[in-house]
Amino acid sequence: MRIEAVYKPGVTDGRATRIANELSLDLGIPVEVAYYDVYFVLRDGFTAKHAESIFLDPVVQNIRIDAVPSTSKCDVWVEVAYRPGVTDTVALTAHEAITVMLDDTTETSVSTARGYAVTFADAIDDSEDLTPISDRIVAYLHNPLIESAVAITRNAWNAGRRPPSSAATVVPTEIPDVVTYDLAQADDLELERLSRTRLLALTLPEMRAIRDHIAGAAEKRRSVGVPTGITDVELELIAQTWSEHCKHKIFQARFEYTVDGETRVVDGLFRTYIRQTTEQLASTRDDLLSVFHDNSGVVAFDDETVVCMKVETHNSPSALDPYGGAITGIVGVNRDILGTGIGARPILNTNVLCFGYPDTKDVPEGLLPPRRVMAGVHRGIVDGGNQSGIPVVGGAFLFDDSFVGKPLVFCGTGGVLPRIVNGKPSWETTIEPGDVAVMLGGRIGKDGIHGATFSSLGLDEDSPTSAVQIGDPIIQRKMTDLLLEARDRGLYRALTDNGAGGLSSSLGEMAERAGGIRIELDGCPLKYPGLAAWEILVSESQERMSLAVPPERLGEFLALAAKRRVEASRVGEFTDSGVIDVFHRGSCVAHLPLEFVHGGVPTLEIPAVWVPPHERLSAPLSADAAVVIVGSGAHGSESVPEAAPAAEQYRETVLAILSEPNVASKEDLIRQYDHEVQAGSVVKPFCGPAADGPTDGAVYRPKYDSRKGITITHGICPRYSRYDTYRMAACAVDEAYRAHIALGGDPDAAYALDNFCWPDPVLSAETPDGEYKAAQLIRACEALYDYCTSYRLPLISGKDSMKNDARMGGKKVSVLPTLLITLIGTIPDIARAVTSDFKRPGDVVYLAGLTRAELGGSVLEQLIARTRERVNLGEAPLPRVDETRPVYRALFDAVKSGLIASMHDVSDGGLAACVAESALAGRVGAEIQLDDVPRAVAPDRAANCSELLFSESAGRILVTASPADATEFQKSVAGLPVQRIGRVTDESKIRFLAGGVSICSVALEAVENAWNALRNGGIEG
Amino acid sequence: MSRLKPLVCVLSGNGINADRELARAFGYVGADARHEHVQDVFRNPALLDRYSILAFPGGFSYGDHLGSGQVLAALFAHGSESAIERFVESGKLVLGVCNGFQVLTKLGALPNLGGGRHRQASLVHNSGGTFVDAWVTIKTNDSNPSPWLTGLGEFDVPIRHGEGRFVAPELIDRIVGENHVAFTYTGGNPNGSERNIAGITDPTGRILGMMPHPEAFLYRENHPRWSRETLARENALEIFRNAVNYSGVI
Questions:
Q1: Nearest-neighbour CA in chain B from A65: distance (Å)
Q2: Which of A471, A647, A815, B210 is the most buried (most CB within 10 A)?
Q3: Which residues of A touch B215 (CB under 8 A)?
Q4: How far apart are CA A358 and CA A912, in angstroms?
Q5: CA A634 to chain centre
Q6: DSSP A952
């Protein structure tokens, strides 16, 4: 049965209107769209009446059953459906509704499509060939990777063409046999070929280690009845487990690092810098409950509750299918929280996103334009986050054309656990031999095969489309509710999520804790028959958790799952055999010792050579010259102005910075994310009377019966990598910590998460500059260690994604080396949280922290660099902890005494942007005396207004205090680099003065227009 | 008359996701709020009988995949409608917030002019075509005698929805004229609702449906301007207190 629902004539369909607007923008001609929901139902006895009760909203919609749409009023009919095998969440819901309402036993098949009746606003001549424009419409409305589309022009319709009356289905195929490779005699060439053709992403030394292991185990293998050659199941299991994605081989590698002509060995970045940071700090504190080894880091919150946090990246899938990639990123990291300890409840999400500029034209063939990527990722966050009922509390959008190849999609989730669950510390779990391995949630299909190995490779024309999955937040929500219910009833002993590598990773990890496992693939529920054994084991089909259930609770657990309509299956048994055994259709298809699977991967050796900035960068442009160029709109010319900037050029530069996509408001997008659900929001993404000023992060109340809050802040400064990744990483740590301070957070109660996204740093023919990229990585790790230990920020969880390169159409695009610091901190009393909006005219404005001439990688530089190659403005910012630490502490004391009216972290765009944002947020003016800005300049240099306004020196916070509190505040910061620099006014402009003269004055209205530049220009694709 | 602690049934499960804060809101004003999984209600609709107040929370029941509230409403209509009918007819109170309002509307429980529970209105895609999270000010219709609405006046609450545009093509004049409107948006219509409608009641006044989320304004610091203003209202709990007061004396 083909069913169509469409809004009645005369009833506005907001969805159709939005699509029409977007499509008109893309095509450049106005169109109208009617949107049809199309369903295909195959079920005996399913009647039109059934269809109406399930699919129709009779108040606003008409329904057509087994009819085809009339095109008398449409020029092009486009119908888009998911390709067979791709998760169709709407169809799953329809299936559930039909089977619950009618019965579970009759075979039922449902699929869906979206119909668009597109009409050109201007009449089109019948003789005109609509094919070219219809191709463009189709290209806009679907992603060929996961969807198929049919377009029927008016002429084709008249010639008799019609949309399909039934849906394409997956044709069940024969189950492929297990393939065995006899590697005993394989030479290097053969080993490399096998790795490449099977998309294993294993290096030659790794393939050799596998060959040697299998050769040495021949006798043992014969005795257990597994083929003496390696099976495809084993090869795939090892490839997933040893993938860069799962094993972090680069962070474990041995580096030979040459800097300033001297070479030394760095034996493991993780060991040397990251774990070292936390271990050093852990010796003096007892709040770090579980770090590094679980799915997320767990720290104490109060006497009853612990909190956990995890941040993941989902870059490669988002490059191919931005919508599915983002949604899967969110539900995936939610599952990390669910799989922490005995099972935590997710309470908040974060999203930090890096894209190419939306207006970029220069996109290599084969890549989606950044505007499309951003629109898809955004929609994924809307659906993934909102439907999950977890608030998106914070995040960021960054733009740089180095992200055209692979976008960076960081998805974070925080959760809570009671300290004690069923009498035991909630973060500690065990698995006993004899426990039953249970898989819970969605079924296994061919979607998401090779995700782990694929993300360990660069993106190119051969990237597998099967790596794409689409998550279903509703199935996951049901699973979450069930798990928390089962947790509190003590029905399982341990759990972990099925993410990269699927069952091979989740059960492989759990087996390590138990001492072995026997996996029975025949117990795994499949979406459709025909999957090979290895496919079942490595598929990354979504919404699945793996559990260890004590045999005596199995019946109760399965009964509860059935009651909640969540599928649960017995897929094996934990053992103490020391081996992973896999059985399929009666045979043993894998027999691998845990010791080899988890410890057999050879250590990588990576050369690293640092090239200092002065050997790479051209002579820097002065800040004054940059202001003249930007302020006079002379980006295109190559000449270097020598005159000092005029007032008008300062004003234009301030406005250009505010409208730069990295700085400008993303409110239109962020307002589509639910940040209120669960009723914990205290400091939201926006503040001020019009709720449009940017806040520095989130303050969140996790418990209704406690006034203690959590802060969530971010630091991410990829542009500074062009100068030095040490400074990039140092600034990321400082920015996240500074924002925590600016929100009123406790300087002694904050925890950091590190997420590295790097271009491939291993020297090879494809990466000739690998040595430099490796050195960049080491330097970032050094800064991470230096600043986290200085600020006493334990690293509680982290992740790395090391192959963020795309090679398309003969062109290579690599991301800027990027470290995201996510900080989760606490604030003793939510009522003392501080927001960034200026509060009242008359309030005194202070600047805390010293300003230096540090414009390298600034927004000002970026404004010129987009049109002039090889431009740089000198040194990137470097935080000085001996200056910043005492300031941050003093500010927290002032917060506790209630002396502070507002704080805003000075970052992208420098002081000028910071003042403009706080003034606009508060709908007040400001007058700033640049002469009073606390600064560190060489004694023989006069202060320079361009530098004071636009330098992005770290460690600075803009503070206001009411006149009544000003004296007391000033006392509290005596002796520190904190100075009064101006006041909040009731004028509708911001003014900067130097030497008693106004050098820059910008009307608030102009600030508002510039800040809303993306909004007015439209950033949704 | 003795004052009892009324039992509130807060539905949960299958994509409902604002149930914890809704239970907490009722708890703050002295009710005993408990969660009931919708699967358990489908299996045994009579379990509703012991409750005094029935609350349909916000969320995305069944993902709203077939239209907001569509599937949950269809499943209630399929087996549990008589239990809800019995519930309302015995003088008890029903609340639907956001997705809950959508469910009650699609069930025909709202506005239910003339009885019979036919669908008479709908909540459709916002006129802007996107989900919106924003705080709004809503005004209570003082002429609606519903026990939910006593003394509420004007107050701030967040909205968070993609399908919140209230439409009732044939009955809008009656809904307004007969004072079934409960709340209207003031100072800007965020979703294109007819007559700025943010919430309505049934003719008995005992069933209230509203798009905004009073359960997301539990305390002062939830308000978007708490850090800069003296607030006229420091929470939106009055609406729950009204229900508890009403239920405690019947």
A1: 16
A2: A471
A3: 679
A4: 25
A5: 36
A6: -
Site of tokens 């909205």:
B159
Predicted complex ipTM: 0.95
In the 3-class helix/strand/coil scheme, how is A840-885 assigned residue by residue? CCCCEEEEECCECCCCCCCHHHHHHHCCCCCCCCCCCCCCCHHHHH
- Taking only the tens place, the pLDDT of each residue in A284-309 is 899 999 998 888 899 999 999 999 99
Dihedral, A827, A831, A835, A839 alpha carbons, nearest 10: -150
Give the percent of chain A with pLDDT over 90: 70
Judged by DSSP in three states, A306 sits in strand
Which residues make beta-bridge pairs with A959? A846, A903
Domain boundaries, chain B: 7-247
CB within 8 Å of A916: residues ≥ 6 apart? A654, A658, A990, A1002, A1007, A1011
Q: Which residues contact B214 (CB under 8 A, 6 or more apart)?
A: B25, B97, B157, B236, B237, B239, B240
Query: Do A110 and A94 contact (CB within 8 A), yes or no?
Result: yes
Q: How many of the other CB atoms lie within 10 Å of CB of A406?
A: 30
Contact of A269 with A251, CB cutoff 8 Å: yes
Residues facing residue A80 across a β-bridge: A114, A149
Token pair listed for A306 = 């612990």
User: Strand locations in B162-247, DSSP E?
Assistant: 165-167, 181-186, 197-201, 207-210
What is the distance between the alpha carbons of residues A238 and A240, in angstroms, rounded to a whole number? 5
Asked whether the beta carbons of A947 and A623 are under 8 A apart, the reply is yes
Chain B residue closest in CA terms to A99:
B75
| CATH ID of B7-247, from 3.40.50.150, 3.40.50.880, 3.40.50.2300, 3.30.70.2740 | 3.40.50.880
| Chain A hits for B158, Cβ within 8 Å | 676
Tokens linked to A621 = 């442009």
Non-local (6+) Cβ contacts of A749 within 8 A are A287, A825, A826
Six token digits for residue A934: 């606390």
pTM of the model: 0.94
Residues in Cβ contact with B102 at an 8 Å cutoff, skipping those fewer than 6 apart: B64, B68, B69, B73, B96, B123, B163
Written as one letter, the residue type at B175 is I
Please give the pLDDT value at position A1021: 37
CA distance A382 to chain B (A): 8
A14/B65 CB distance under 8 A: no
Per-residue pLDDT tens digits for A957-976: 999 999 999 999 999 999 99
How far, in Å, CA of A97 to CA of B6, rounded?
33
Contacts of A388 in chain B (CB under 8 A): 17
Residue window 1-60, chain B: list those with CB within 8 Å of chain A. 12-15, 17-18, 20-21, 24, 37, 39-40, 42, 58-60
* CA proximity to A1000, closest of A914, A929, A933, A937: A929
Angle at A72 between CA A71 and CA A76, to 5 degrees: 40
Closest to A593 in 3D by CA, of A505, A504, A516, A482: A516
- pLDDT, tens only, A402-444: 999 999 999 999 999 999 999 999 999 999 999 999 999 888 8
